[in-house]
Structures are given as structure tokens and as C-alpha cells.
Design goal:
The complex is a heterodimer of chains A (344) and B (341).
Chain A lengths: L1 H8 L3 E14 L2 E14 L3 E5 L6 H8 L8 E4 L2 E4 L2 E2 L5 H7 L4 E4 L3 H4 L6 H12 L4 H14 L5 H4 L9 H13 L5 E5 L7 H18 L2 E6 L2 H7 L2 E6 L2 E7 H6 L4 H9 L44 H5 L5 E4 L2 E3 L4 H8 L1
Parallel strand pairs in A: 3-9, 3-10, 7-8, 8-9
Antiparallel strand pairs in A: 1-2, 1-4, 1-5, 5-6, 10-11, 11-13, 12-13
Helix pairs in contact in A: 5-6, 5-8, 6-8, 8-9
Chain B lengths: L24 E13 L7 E14 L4 E5 L6 H8 L7 E6 L2 E2 L5 H10 E4 L13 H11 L5 H14 L16 H13 L5 E5 L7 H18 L2 E6 L2 H7 L2 E6 L2 E7 H6 L4 H9 L40 H5 L5 E4 L2 E3 L5
Parallel strand pairs in B: 3-8, 3-9, 6-7, 7-8
Antiparallel strand pairs in B: 1-2, 1-4, 4-5, 9-10, 10-12, 11-12
Classes of the chains: A alpha/beta (344), B alpha/beta (341).
């Protein structure tokens, strides 16, 4: 907590994405998966990136590590700076030294992102070998140490097991062990608990929190789950249809959302009642009418306009500019004052 | 163990049903076991005890939420009720008739009244049929409507679930996830439906779309006095839509009560842990005390002795390892299977 308040005072960016545009050229036209997104991650911080399917939150992360297949994909940006150097200037070989070593990633599906024909020990060992010059025994010891770190039950025995022999929660522990084995400065976690049951999710979130405090890794937490965002992050970026629509400290975002989409999202989540007074009898949920526009359609004006209750004519013509309303709270909405008035 | 809840005034708890004494659906000591071969060469079979003695009832116009984690058997309960999977033992009574004993032909009128909505709107609609044809199939199969009449009824169903009638000629791939789920709902409503089993019907949808579909389901229930068995792993969604809630663990119910009781005053340690594991979408309550369960759910092929939850239960005592807890009514309408509560 001390470390956090310190970094909050003087945030020192470790990763900065500046005007990223990732497009996919398909037969049906150009898909603008990420359309001019900028955000930064500070040292030791957990940044949440939230949005619904297809909003571009994962593609942004994959673009940072250049894990987008080109063609059909194309990554353009003013810069993606890691520790001040532009990752877009690096060769593929130099990029390989960054991936898994300085910036690593945990994916949603632990079954498909682990190699089914390699043992757990070999898989983690490969990552360690790729980035460090260790003997076989040292690698093995390091692997066991990593499995112990992620609280894998009977870690030594796991070395010779294959992914299919593990439960979903254990597979995700292996993924985290792999991702942290080279002590990266940045960890990108893309829906790390979405495929897990709630009791297992609680275990993994708890583990990730402890490890972050212990190792000081900066984390980008990508998720659609506002509960996970509230629980884990300090600052949040909200994405909609490939654009960033809002950014704020987590408390500010939940207390006083300034973009109608964020407000709608927060209102439509069913919540567990805390006491018998808040447990209502089957009230209708607030819904956001309509659906997300196609990523290939015209991109004039605010992309949320068709679903927005605050919409004006201007919204359909002019694309809103991201502006800082209060300190650290950024919103791309022409009508944001109305929300500020509503939420205080 | 397989005590049935009929003897109890269980229904007092859900205010909706005080008038209706006999339930629409009554499940009694239901068991569904699947044989699995132990090893490739071995002849001895073992069983997956997917559903292992489950009893509950659903009143007309009521939603019973059925929650549990993957592999607990909740989907198998739903499929067994519809006899998409045959039960190993136990009974399913629909309006008093035991449907487990019926022949395929005798089952037909009941099939009109019991429908299912699946989780994945992508794999549960035939990609080669127009969506109008998909929704109209039940009417054709049961020889209820054809020609103009069919077209008219399907159009009305489309309008009711929030689609446009002219979209009937399109194919499933032309629709989004939320729209496809609306098509699934229209199909379930085509006949003289009284009970809909929703097997994770909103789990694959985004939050903003999920709210639309939940509201639609609740409106339809009121309009048509439908009963729902709402199967889900999402406790917040279940709290929202249900009148009563049943919690399942490794093939058995561990707790069943009125919604208010189960969320405010849970008795079973598993229910408590499940509720406390859900991340709260409110950063000001961050760091609330959690009951963290150790380890994973054991295999349903070889479930633990005694209480099946004892391997992960923070309160387990020696008795729990040996003796199976009795399914009993702790307070009126609040059922639980635990030695300690």
C-alpha cells in the first residue's frame, strides 16, 4: 500500500501506448479493431482495461507485444514506448527478447495456451532457458521454485505431468508461473479468470494480488468483469468499439462515471445484495438498448450515439475528443456535463 | 436421504405460490449416472455420479435458480428432466404425471409444454436453416400450424422477443449473440409452453445484452405464467431472476431456500463460500473478508465419503468424513444437508 501511494504521487510510466491503430484487412472490408487508443501503465500499478466483446481490449494487448499476424493485421502507432524505447522500432529478434522476459502475458484459456504434448516442467523450463543461461539443474530448481511461488500443490510431482492432467485452476497457475519466471516488469493478464469457477477465480485473484505486492510487477488487467476491475485495479480504461471512451481512478469511475456507456454498464450489472434491505424482489435490470456497431461500419461521430440516452445531433457528426474533466478523469463525450451533474 | 420436500410447507416461503398446492414440476430422488470404462482394456465399469439423488419442485409461475460450479451436475439435472438424458433412478412428475415411465409417443404432449434454452447461441441453432424455419419447426413437428398461419405465428413470436418479423428469412450467422438468444427464446415459446429450462442462457452474453435478455425472460414469465428452472453459475444473475434457489455440489443439492433466505442467511458452508467468492463491483468494499476454499472440486467418478464437500470445507469435523448428512428442513422452506448447521 505504501508503495502504491508513493507511485500515485509521482507516477513513473513504464509502458505508454500512443495513438494505436490496429486494423485487419479482410474480404469484407477493413476492420478497425483498435482505433486511436492511448494509455499508459505506471510502475507497480494495476491498470484495468474493461469493455465488452469486440471492443479491442485484447487486440490492444496483442499489439503491444506484436503478436498480431501481418497480414491481415496491421499495427500503426505514434509509438509504443517501453521504458522509453519505442517497441515498433525493434527487429523481430529484439522483440523476442522482450516477450516473456520483460513483458509477459497470461491468456484466458489455459487449455489452449499450454502445449498439450509438453510436460509442465518442460514448458516452464523452455521460457527460463530462452531468456537466461542456466544449467539443467538450475533450470529445474527455478521451475520448482516458480511452481511453489504460484502455490501449486505438490510442485515437484507436477514437473512430469501434462496439461490435461491438471484442473483449470492449476493450469492457470502454470500459466502464471511461466509468465513470471523471468521476473518481467510488465504482466498483461487477458481475462485470466474468466474460464474459471468462482471459488477458483477467488484463489487466482488472491494469488495475483499477493505476487504483485511481492514482486512489484506492473499489471494490465484486461477483463469484461466489473467485479474483477473493482477488486484488483487502481486505474481503469473503458473501451467501446475500438476506442477509449473513459479513463479514471477506479473509485472515481465507479462513483461518478462520466461517459454514458460506462454509466450504462455499471447500471446493468446484477449485484449480490449485501443485506435484506438491498435485496429487491425481482426488479427489472437497467439495460443499454441496441448493440455494438459493426467494426467495419462508418466511424463518424460518437460510436455509442445510437444507444445513448443523452445523444444530440452533434454526437452523430463530430467524434468526441478525449478531455480531462477533473484531475486524472478523462472522457470522450460531448454531453459529459449532464452526467457530471447527475453523479456529482 | 432422498426425502422429498412435499411434506413441508416449503411453498409458504415463496409468496407467489401460496394458492397453488400441487407443483407444476416435481423431481424426486433423481439420479443420473454415466458409465465410463476405467481403462482401455478393462471390462469393469465405473460411473460418473453426475446427479445423485436430487429432489425439488417448481410451482406455476415460479423461477427456481440452480447454481453450482462446472461439473456439479446442474446441466444434467436439466437434461434429465426433459429426458434428453435418461435417469438412472427417481421420478420426474409434470403436473402429477410421472414422465420417466412414458414411451416416446406418450412423451409427445409433454414435450410441447417443456422447453429448453441453451447457453451457446452459436451452436444451438442450425446454421443451414433460416431462423424463421428454426422457430417454426416445433409448430410443424407437432402439426399445429402450417402455411399462412405458421408464418403469422412465427412473425408474432419474433415481434414478441424483440426481433422484426421480416428477419425470419435470415440465417443464424447474420445475428449477434444476443439476437440469437432471442431466437432461442422464440423457439422455446412456439408451443404451449409451461416450463422452460434455461441452461446458462445468459452466460455467453455481454453485460449490456445480458440485462436485455434477463428482462425479456422476466416479462415473458409474467405474461404467460411460465415456470423456469434457471441453471447458472452466476450467483448475482440467479439472485436477480429467481424466487427460490438451489445450490448443487458434486451431484447433490446442499441447500435450497427462498431467495431471501439463501442470500442473506446461507446455512451451508459451501453456499457461504460461493457467495463470498463473487467479486463485488464496488471498489470501496475492496479487501472484504473472503472464505477461500482450498483445492479443486473432486472427481464425480469417485466422490468423497461422507459429506462430499468435506475435502474443501473449512468447518469439516471427523463426522463429516464418515457420515453423509441428511437433507433436512432447518427452518420452514429452508432445506440443507450439513451436520454442523
Amino acid at each position: 500500500m505504501d508503495l502504491m501511494t508513493k507511485t500515485m504521487k509521482r507516477p513513473e510510466p513504464i509502458l505508454e501506448i500512443d495513438n494505436l491503430r490496429t486494423t485487419f484487412h479482410t474480404r469484407d472490408g477493413v476492420i478497425r479493431a483498435v482505433d486511436g487508443v492511448s494509455y499508459r501503465l505506471n510502475r507497480g500499478e494495476v491498470l484495468g482495461v474493461v469493455g465488452e466483446s469486440g471492443c479491442g481490449k485484447s487486440v490492444t494487448a496483442l499489439s503491444i507485444l506484436q503478436l498480431i499476424q501481418k497480414p491481415p493485421g496491421q499495427i500503426e502507432a505514434t509509438a509504443i514506448r517501453f521504458n522509453g524505447k519505442n517497441l515498433l522500432d525493434l527487429s523481430e529478434r529484439q522483440m523476442q527478447r522482450i516477450r516473456g522476459n520483460e513483458i509477459s502475458m497470461v491468456f484466458q484459456e489455459p487449455m489452449t495456451s499450454l502445449n498439450p504434448i509438453l510436460t509442465v516442467g518442460r514448458q516452464i523450463g523452455l521460457v527460463i532457458d530462452a531468456h537466461a543461461d542456466l544449467s539443467r539443474t538450475e533450470t529445474k530448481n527455478k521451475t520448482v521454485e516458480m511452481l511453489r511461488l504460484v502455490r501449486m500443490p505438490s510442485p515437484k510431482q507436477r514437473l512430469d505431468e501434462y496439461p490435461h492432467q491438471l484442473s483449470g485452476g492449476m493450469r492457470q497457475r502454470v500459466m502464471i508461473a511461466m509468465a513470471l519466471s523471468c521476473n518481467p516488469q510488465v504482466l498483461i493478464a487477458d481475462e485470466p479468470t474468466t474460464a474459471l469457477d468462482v471459488t477458483i477465480q477467488a484463489q487466482i485473484l488472491n494469488l495475483m494480488n499477493d505476487l504483485r505486492e511481492q514482486l512489484g510487477t506492473a499489471v494490465i488487467m484486461i477483463t469484461h468483469d466489473l467485479g474483477v476491475i473493482a477488486e484488483m485495479t487502481q486505474r481503469v480504461v473503458v473501451m467501446y468499439a475500438g476506442r477509449k471512451v473513459e479513463e479514471a481512478a477506479v473509485e472515481d469511475l465507479f462513483r461518478a462515471p462520466q461517459h454514458p456507456y460506462t454509466a450504462g454498464l455499471l447500471a446493468s450489472v446484477p449485484r449480490l445484495a449485501e443485506d435484506s434491505r438491498s435485496l429487491k424482489d425481482r426488479m427489472r435490470l437497467k439495460e443499454i438498448p441496441g448493440m455494438v456497431p459493426a467494426t467495419t461500419s462508418a466511424r463518424q461521430g460518437c460510436l455509442f450515439a445510437d444507444r445513448c440516452s443523452y445523444v444530440t445531433d452533434r454526437c452523430r457528426i463530430e467524434t468526441p475528443i478525449l478531455e480531462e474533466s477533473t484531475s486524472g478523469h478523462w472522457t470522450a463525450c460531448w454531453e459529459t456535463e449532464k452526467l457530471v451533474a447527475n453523479y456529482g | 436421504m432422498a426425502d422429498v420436500e412435499t411434506t413441508s410447507p416449503a411453498n409458504n416461503a415463496s409468496q407467489v405460490n401460496t394458492k397453488a398446492p400441487s407443483p407444476l414440476l416435481k423431481v424426486e430422488a433423481l439420479k443420473t449416472h454415466f458409465p465410463v470404462r476405467k481403462e482401455f482394456s478393462s471390462r469393469s465399469t465405473s460411473f460418473v455420479y453426475a446427479v445423485d439423488g436430487v429432489s425439488f419442485s417448481i410451482q406455476k409461475g415460479e423461477t427456481l435458480g440452480l447454481v453450482g460450479e462446472s461439473g456439479c451436475g446442474k446441466s444434467t439435472v436439466g437434461k434429465t428432466i426433459l429426458r434428453l438424458v435418461e435417469p438412472t433412478a427417481g421420478r420426474v412428475r409434470f403436473e402429477g404425471t410421472d414422465i420417466t415411465a412414458l414411451s416416446r409417443r406418450e412423451m409427445r404432449p409433454f414435450r410441447q409444454m417443456m422447453q429448453i434454452i441453451f447457453q451457446d447461441p452459436y451452436s444451438s441453432l442450425n446454421p443451414r436453416m433460416s431462423v424463421g424455419n428454426i422457430v417454426g419447426q416445433p409448430l410443424i413437428i407437432h402439426k399445429i400450424a402450417s402455411g399462412q398461419e405458421l408464418e403469422h405465428r412465427v412473425g408474432a413470436l419474433f415481434e414478441r422477443v424483440g426481433l422484426r418479423a421480416e428477419q425470419m428469412r435470415s440465417y443464424p450467422h447474420e445475428f449477434s449473440g444476443g439476437q440469437r438468444q432471442r431466437i432461442g427464446i422464440a423457439r422455446a415459446l412456439a408451443l404451449n409452453t409451461k416450463l422452460i429450462i434455461g441452461d446458462e442462457p445468459v452466460s455467453a452474453l455481454d453485460v449490456s445484452i445480458q440485462a436485455q435478455v434477463i428482462n425479456l425472460l422476466m416479462d415473458l414469465q409474467e405474461e404467460r405464467d411460465l415456470s423456469y428452472l434457471f441453471i447458472s453459475h452466476d450467483l448475482a444473475v440467479v439472485e436477480h431472476i429467481s424466487h427460490r434457489v438451489a445450490v448443487m455440489y458434486l451431484g447433490k443439492l446442499v441447500e435450497l431456500a427462498d431467495k431471501r433466505e439463501i442470500y442473506i442467511n446461507p446455512l451451508h458452508p459451501y453456499t457461504e463460500a460461493l457467495l463470498s467468492a463473487v467479486p463485488t463491483p464496488d471498489p470501496t468494499v475492496r479487501g472484504k473478508k473472503r472464505i477461500l476454499l482450498e483445492g479443486d472440486v473432486p472427481s464425480p467418478i469417485n466422490p468423497p465419503s461422507g459429506c462430499r464437500f468435506h475435502t474443501r470445507c473449512p468447518l469439516a469435523e471427523s463426522q463429516c468424513r464418515i457420515e453423509e448428512p441428511v437433507w433436512r428442513e432447518a427452518t420452514p422452506g429452508h432445506w440443507v444437508a450439513c451436520h454442523l448447521r
